[in-house]
Design brief:
By secondary structure, the chain is of the alpha+beta class. The chain has one domain (about 5-75, about 85-165). The protein has three helices and ten strands. It has helices at about 25-40, 105-120, 150-165, and strands at about 5-15, 20-25, 50-55, 60, 65-75, 90-95, 100, 125-130, 135-140, 145-150. A five-stranded antiparallel β-sheet has the order 3-4-10-6-7. A three-stranded antiparallel β-sheet has the order 2-1-5. The protein has a two-stranded antiparallel sheet with strand order 8-9. A hairpin with a 4-residue loop joins strand 3 and strand 4. The longest helix has 14 residues, at about 150-165.
Length: about 160
Amino acid sequence: MAQGVYRYFLKFFFRGQVEPLVAEVLERERDRVREIVAANPVNATNEGFLCFDTVDGKSVAVNPNFVQVLHILFEPSFPSGPGRYEGPVLMYMRDADDPFETFIEDPEQAYDLFFHLENGPDVVPAVSFDDEDGEQVIIAARELLFIVIPRHVLEEGRQLVEEDM
C-alpha cells in the first residue's frame, strides 16, 4: 500500500442479511481484527464474538458464525477526530429485518454484556441487561448477528468494574 493518510473500514456480509455492516475503524483496530480473523477464519469457529471499536464512538460485537465475508477496505483521506456515539444499543438478530433498539441503564451491565459475548455462545448462551426503564432484556447469543453499543458507556462500565475489584 502506498504511504499516506487512510481511512479504514471493515465490511461484514452476513448469512440471511441483505445489508452488510460497514464500520470505520482506526488502523490499529483494523490490524487487530485482521490478526484475529487470520488465526480463526470467519464462520469457522464457535469461539466468542469479534469485538472492536469504531471511529464514531461505537463498540461492536460480531458473531463470527454468521459472517460470510469480511472485506477490509481503505481509502485515502484526511483523518477525522474520534466521535462520540450517543444513540441506542442496536441488536441485529438473525432473520430480523430491523434491529432491536434500546438503551442500557447500567454501564456495568453494558461492560458485562460485551465481556460475556467475547466468551462466545457456547460459554454464555444467553446474556441480559436492564433497559432504560429497568425492564430486563434477555438475548439468545446464538441468534445475535452483531450488537452496537456506545463506547463511552462500555468504558464507564469497565472503570466501575475495576474500581469494585
